[in-house]
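Hi support team,

I've been running sequence recovery on a batch of backbones for a student project. Most finish fine, but this one hangs at about 90% for roughly twenty minutes before it completes. I'm not sure whether the input is malformed or the queue is just slow. I've pasted the C-alpha cells below so you can try to reproduce it. Let me know if you need the job ID as well.

Thanks,
M.K.
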C-alpha cells in the first residue's frame, strides 16, 4: 500500500480496499497472494515491487501523457 500511496498520480485513481477475511470466496482465492491490485479485469499479485507496480499501472490505469 505504501508503494501505491507514494505515486504522484494517485489522486486520479479510485482506490477501494477489500477485507477478504469477511468473504470466504475471496479469502480462498487471495489468501496466499496478498496484496492484490485489480484494474480493468486484470490483477497484479504479490510480490509487488516499485518497478512491477509502475509498469502494471502505466499499461492499464494511469493516463498517458
Amino acid at each position: 500500500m505504501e508503494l501505491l500511496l507514494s505515486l504522484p498520480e494517485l489522486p486520479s485513481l479510485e482506490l477501494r480496499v477489500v477485507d477478504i477475511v469477511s468473504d470466504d470466496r475471496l479469502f480462498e482465492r487471495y489468501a496466499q497472494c496478498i496484496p492484490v491490485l485489480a484494474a480493468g479485469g486484470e490483477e497484479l499479485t504479490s510480490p509487488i515491487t516499485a518497478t512491477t507496480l509502475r509498469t502494471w499501472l502505466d499499461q492499464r490505469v494511469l493516463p498517458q501523457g
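--
Follow-up from support: It reproduced on our side and the slowdown came from queue contention, not your input. The chain is about 35% helix and 10% strand. No action needed from you.
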